[in-house]
Amino acid sequence: MNIAYSSMKSYSILLIIILQCKYNLLMHIYHSKKINRISCKTKKKINTKVHDTCLINSIYNINISKIHMSIKVFQLFTYVFLVFHVYSKDVNAQNVTVFPADSFVESIGVNTHWEFASVYVYNYTGLKEKLAQLGIRYLRGQTFQAVYNRSNDLYNSLGIRTNILMGRRKDGPWPQPLDLDQIDFELNEIKTEALIPTVTLEGPNEYDVSHGADLEWIQTINNYNILLYTKVRADEQLKHLPIIGPSLTTLKAYESVGNADPYIDYANIHLYQWTFWPGFNGLDQNGSTSIPWYLNYLARQQSPEGKLVQVTETGYTNYIDYGGLSEEADGKYMPRIFAEFFRQGIYRTYKYELINNGIEGREGLFGLLRNNLTEKPSFKAMQTIITLLNDKGPSFQPEQFNYTLNGSLHDVRQLLFQKRNGDFYLMIWLEISCWDVNHKIDLYPSPQLLTLTLQDTNNISNAILYTFNNTADLNIVNMTINNNQILFNVTEKISIVKFSNVNPYFIPNGVYRIAPKHALHLSLENSNQHPQYATVCDSNYMSNFNQQWTFESLGNFFYNVTNQGTFGQHWKIDSLPNGYYRIQINNEKNQCLSVNMNRTTQILSCSHDSDDQQWKIEWITQN
To answer: Is the CA virtual torsion 434, 276, 202, 143 positive or negative?
Structure first.
């Protein structure tokens, strides 16, 4: 939120606190006068509260009727002020930071358990297709052979990288103490089995509640941190890998383990809000508390220097009987979790977890997917947001975007992004509850109407509003810009407003992967045997150069597209509102590249409604 609004809100809250303190004081004095009727002159031994009351009375000579009148006045004034503060039409100039759109996609990860003898094993093919569809780039997994195997395949096929969770235990029934002698074995396995797909190494998981018979667990975890960091930094193959600190579960545990700054690159917290909304700001029976509390207390115990934080576990379970909420509320909260964490400076957030893993009770229902691979609303919402904001490519500096918001801004949150083509994306939502934690039912708060006014210097030609319904189905509306203004409702669900620059769309020169919308686990491939043709095959584009396409801009949406020096053609690329592209192979005849469900590519008449002609064009590297 902008500086002006934040300052006004802070002053408002401060005034309310002052009014409440005055009210409490007057009520205290009034009741002590009315009920106790204590004489300060005759009472020799009085308690502190009575003494304070008598002292105040002796100084101010307060009359009871005046006290009662003052109480009513303060009550009325406070009520009027609160009503004005909440429902008044605030007009605020926005001065928000503009982030590269792809930085939000880069902040998203998900937990997986490829080692589990469950759906993770018997339907890996289906899960791989869902990961391709979701568009997520980072996974979290442990040091198991199954994890190494899947990590390599997913990196080679989809470019997905893995945060490897360290911390093998001694032999015996769970939980056993950490085995520090195993660190070398784990690191050697990573070097030989999964070095390329590994993005980070993470310290042991929640050891304060899983140390078993290790009574010296605090010393153990500190020794582990030191050994892990020292060994990694001394290894030529591993020293480039950042190290995330170990996760713990309580403030007391973080205080006991203490400062880990010399041996970590990122602080680590697990932040669950259970049945409460992401921006919940208070303590409940489950121990949930605010995001700033986690960042300012837990994370700062581990990193007093203030290193960036990664949240390696968060999310909601749909086990309503114990700490859970509905799939509908989950579908509204999970995108807001990623947005709120990003807004408050968290570097990367890993949702727990990819799929309901078949375990009975609360632990089995944390997935973005149901156990049969059908999509929950949270999966659908995140897939759409990732698709809209996906913008891989060379680094660039976003421009400033000036606008004002008119309307009730109470509980409004916003993030502003820009893509390399100049388009801006305003992500906006109400950070409020949509789940009744007592009655365990969905809530439907009223939307708030806003007017967004563009500044003349923005050179905006059109605006598109992306909204979700209660089950995360996407609705796309072309907005009418009148007098540099658009009107829209902000709700408890994330909405995105796209503002298109007057400059024509362009794809930066580079090497790209091309994948069909309805089968994102596949990639367009140039056959060595028949270089004049292209087919759609299982994706392995990181190692298969025949799936890497070089784009060179020719202007006016046309590109010279080559594959390994062959298959050179001039293609016209049309950007579609849903984040995909249409590829015109023969512009004069209005013919587009099409693919059917049998993976057969064809050149057909262009259709605006055909999913068969919609492609994902994803940047791999520069030329």
So the answer is: negative
SS3 536: strand
Q: In the 8-state DSSP scheme, what is residue 437?
A: T
Which tokens sit at 148? Answer: 């190494």
> What kind and span of H or E run contains 510?
strand 510-516
pLDDT of residue 286: 65
Cα(312)–Cα(63) distance, rounded to whole angstroms?
A: 60
The third-level CATH classification (topology) of the domain covering 99-389 is TIM Barrel (3.20.20)
Give, for 407, the enclosing helix (H) or strand (E).
strand 403-407
Q: Give the tokens for residue 107.
A: 């902040």
- Helix/strand/coil for 48: helix
In the chain, what are the domain boundaries? 3-88, 93-97+396-501, 99-389, 510-621
Nearest C-alpha neighbor of 86 from the set 430, 428, 401, 429: 430
Read off the tokens for 611.
Answer: 């999913």
For residue range 63-114, list pLDDT tens digits in order.
444 444 544 444 444 444 444 444 444 445 457 899 999 999 999 999 999 9
Question: In the chain, what's the furthest Cα-to-Cα distance?
Answer: 109
Architecture of domain 510-621: Trefoil (2.80)
3-state helix, strand, coil in the chain (%, to 5): 35, 30, 40
Q: Is 557 left (phi over 0), alpha (psi -120 to 50) or beta?
A: left
User: Global pTM?
Assistant: 0.85
83 CB neighbour count, 10 Å cutoff: 10
Rounded CA Rg of the chain: 29
List the chain residues with pLDDT less than 50: 1-19, 21-68, 70-91, 93, 531
At the topology level, CATH places domain 93-97+396-501 in Immunoglobulin-like (2.60.40)
Question: In this structure, what are the phi and psi dihedrals at residue 191, rounded to the nearest 5 degrees?
Answer: -60, -40
Tokens of 183: 């660190």
Among 45, 55, 50, CA closest to 32:
50
Whole-angstrom Cα distance, residue 464 to residue 577? 8
CB 350 within 8 A of CB 337: no
58's CB contacts (< 8 A; 6+ apart) are 40
93-97+396-501 and 510-621: identical CATH topology: no
Whole-number pLDDT of residue 82: 41
CA nearest neighbour of 576 among 399, 443, 388:
388
**How distant, in Å, are the alpha carbons of 144, 187, 318, 529 from that of 164?**
10, 10, 27, 40
Q: What pLDDT, on a 0 to 100 scale, did the predictor assign at position 84?
A: 41
Q: Quick count: other Cβ atoms within 10 Å of Cβ 356?
A: 23
Give the total residue count for the chain.
623
Contact 126, 114 (CB under 8 A): no
Residue among 622, 590, 620 nearest 603 (CA) = 590
- The whole-number pLDDT of residue 596 equals 81
Sign of the C-alpha dihedral computed for residues 166, 125, 525 and 575 taken in this order: negative
Chain position carrying tokens 């928000």: 96
Name the 3-class secondary structure at 614.
coil
